[in-house]
Amino acid sequence: FVYVLEGEGVFGPTADQPAGAHHLLLLGQGGDGVEVWNRSDKPLRFVLVAGEPIGEPVAQLGPFVMNTEEEIDATVNDFEYFINGFEKAKHWKSQAMIALELEYVG
């Protein structure tokens, strides 16, 4: 997939419609490259994420993605107890959650 951060670009044949900032484009599973065209005078910045399928099962709960439900349970437990890489999560809040709390209180 491609996520456009800034600017406007054409991803694929030059006749395709341009995609602007904050748009996500899903690419097909064929081929080994993508052509990108910047049709404006402004810089184009984007993130390209690609890979080959690995044929493993996928389990997902919210932002957590693992291979099994048991791994999801263990990860949620780690998150709730601030262990195994989540040590700094105890004092972290997303800007979205802070805004929602202010909206709820106000």
From TrEMBL:
Pfam families with a match to the protein in the record: Pirin_C
InterPro entries xref list: Pirin, Pirin_C_dom, RmlC-like_jellyroll, RmlC_Cupin_sf
Gene3D superfamilies, per the entry: Jelly Rolls
Pirin C-terminal domain segment(s): 1-81
PANTHER family named in the record: OS09G0484800 PROTEIN, PIRIN-RELATED
Protein name per Swiss-Prot or TrEMBL: Pirin C-terminal domain-containing protein
Native organism: Aegilops tauschii subsp. strangulata
Source taxonomy: Eukaryota, Viridiplantae, Streptophyta, Embryophyta, Tracheophyta
